[in-house]
Backbone:
C-alpha cells in the first residue's frame, strides 16, 4: 500500500436525527471548495462536478449557499449577497456593494493567527495534450471596434456629477484608450 490507513473520523449511523431537514441541509457540500494543498485529478466526471455542484447549489439553495457551515469560509468574507432565502447572517449595518461612497470606514480584515503559506503544487503525474482552442481569436479590426465602443461608453463619464466617480471612470477610459482622455 502506498499510504497507511489512518482513522480520521468516526461516523455514527445508529443515532436518530432530531431535525432531519436541518441535518439534510448541512449535506450540501461542494467538491469545488477544497483546502489549500489539495488538487484535482484529471477525471472528466470530477472536473464536471466541480463546476456543476456549485451551479446547482446556487440554483437550489440560493445566493447564500456559501453560508452553510460545510461550505462557509473559515475567515471573514464580504460579498454582496445579503438578501434572498437561506440567509443565515443578517448584515444590516453594511452597504451591500463594495467599494461604496456610503461606507463610513474601510473594512479591514484581521490577519490570520497562523502564518498560512501557499503549499507547493505537485508535479502532474501525466501530461495531457489537447488541441488549442482557436475560437477566441479576433482580428485586430474587431478588437479596435470593441475598444472604441467601450471608450465612447466610458467617455460619457464627464456628465457624472460626483467628482470621485468621474475620476474613477476616467481611469477606466485611460486603460481603454490613453489618447481619448483629456
Residues:
Amino acid at each position: 500500500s502506498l499510504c497507511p490507513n489512518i482513522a480520521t473520523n468516526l461516523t455514527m449511523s445508529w443515532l436518530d436525527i432530531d431535525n432531519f431537514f436541518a441535518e439534510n441541509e448541512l449535506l450540501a457540500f461542494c467538491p469545488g471548495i477544497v483546502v489549500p494543498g489539495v488538487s484535482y485529478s484529471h477525471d472528466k466526471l470530477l472536473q464536471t462536478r466541480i463546476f456543476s455542484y456549485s451551479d446547482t447549489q446556487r440554483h437550489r439553495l440560493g445566493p447564500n449557499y456559501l453560508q452553510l457551515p460545510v461550505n462557509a469560509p473559515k475567515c471573514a468574507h464580504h460579498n454582496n449577497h445579503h438578501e434572498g432565502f437561506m440567509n443565515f447572517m443578517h448584515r444590516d449595518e453594511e452597504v451591500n456593494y463594495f467599494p461604496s461612497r456610503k461606507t463610513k470606514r474601510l473594512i479591514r480584515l484581521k490577519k490570520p493567527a497562523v502564518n498560512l503559506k501557499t503549499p507547493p503544487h505537485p508535479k502532474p503525474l501525466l501530461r495531457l495534450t489537447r488541441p488549442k482552442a482557436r475560437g477566441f481569436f479576433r482580428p485586430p479590426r474587431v478588437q479596435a471596434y470593441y475598444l472604441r465602443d467601450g471608450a465612447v461608453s466610458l467617455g460619457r463619464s464627464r456628465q457624472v456629477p460626483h467628482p470621485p466617480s468621474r475620476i474613477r471612470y476616467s481611469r477606466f477610459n485611460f486603460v481603454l484608450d490613453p489618447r481619448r482622455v483629456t
In short: DSSP finds four helices and no strands in the chain. Residues 118 and 141 are 42 Å apart (CA to CA).
